[in-house]
């Protein structure tokens, strides 16, 4: 069996998860927690929010809201957990509970304590391009994503939808293939 690399030498395994109908617990009520909750809701997750104070955006999109401090047991039934408070102690407690329960956790203030990080994502309809620095520099990942936005304009959304529909129907469309080649050629400059 190969030796496991040291944490600093390893890289994150990229994956896109289907979260539709999955219980995802976000502990925190500030800006970071709000952004995470909104993205989870956008992916169809059942968002559960836990924080002494929860903003209206989180309330609007959450399946459950517990306006109180986090306590052990709040991760019951969770598929994913997010520790996104401004309290180091609370984030540590969420991470520890998640680890005990085998629930993957994202820890906003100390990514190394978690099991996954979130990439900066460029979306053009069904096309998603994720950029990660494995937590080394979220700002750099955002900067790279912004550069990619100029390369992948809105035309990609329609193109990917049409390619997907053609594939779903088992058809072959030479004109569409030529359009894909032209778009890829523009990327190369």
> What structural category do the secondary elements indicate?
alpha/beta
Which sheet architecture does the biggest sheet show? 5 strands, parallel
Total number of beta strands: 7
- Order of strands in the sheet with most strands: 3-2-1-4-5
Q: Unreliable stretches, pLDDT < 50, 5 or more residues?
A: none
Radius of gyration: 20 Å
Mean pLDDT: 91
- Discrete helix count: 6
Q: What are the secondary-structure elements, in order, as H or E?
A: EHEHEEHEEEHHH
Amino- and carboxy-terminal Cα gap: 44 Å
Described by the principal axes of the CA atoms, the overall outline is elongated
Beta content:
15-25%
* Helical content band: 40-55%
In a nutshell, what does this entry contain?
Helix 2 (56-61) links the parallel strand 2 and strand 3 (64-67). It contains six helices and seven strands, in the order βαβαββαβββααα. The protein has 189 residues and is of the alpha/beta class.
Which features does this protein show?
single chain, about 190 residues, two-stranded antiparallel ribbon, alpha/beta
Question: What can you tell me about this protein's structure?
Answer:
The protein is an alpha/beta fold and 189 residues long. The chain has six helices and seven strands, in the order E-H-E-H-E-E-H-E-E-E-H-H-H. The strands form two sheets. It has a five-stranded parallel sheet, sandwiched between helices. It starts with 22 loop residues before the first strand and ends with a helix.
């Amino acid at each position: 069996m190969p030796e496991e690399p040291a944490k600093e030498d390893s890289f994150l395994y990229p994956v896109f998860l289907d979260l539709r109908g999955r219980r995802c617990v976000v502990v925190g009520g500030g800006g970071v927690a709000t952004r995470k909750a909104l993205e989870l809701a956008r992916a169809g997750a059942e968002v559960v929010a836990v924080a002494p104070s929860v903003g209206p955006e989180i309330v609007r999109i959450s399946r459950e809201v517990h306006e109180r401090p986090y306590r052990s047991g709040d991760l019951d039934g969770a598929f994913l957990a997010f520790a996104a408070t401004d309290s180091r102690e609370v984030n540590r407690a969420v991470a520890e509970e998640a680890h005990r329960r085998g629930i993957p956790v994202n820890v906003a203030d100390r990514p190394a304590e978690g099991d996954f990080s979130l990439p900066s994502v460029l979306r053009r309809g069904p096309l998603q391009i994720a950029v990660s620095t494995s937590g080394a520099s979220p700002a750099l990942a955002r900067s790279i994503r912004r550069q990619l936005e100029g390369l992948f304009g809105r035309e990609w959304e329609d193109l990917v939808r049409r390619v997907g529909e053609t594939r779903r129907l088992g058809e072959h469309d030479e004109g569409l293939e030529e359009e894909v080649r032209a778009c890829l050629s523009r990327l190369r400059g």
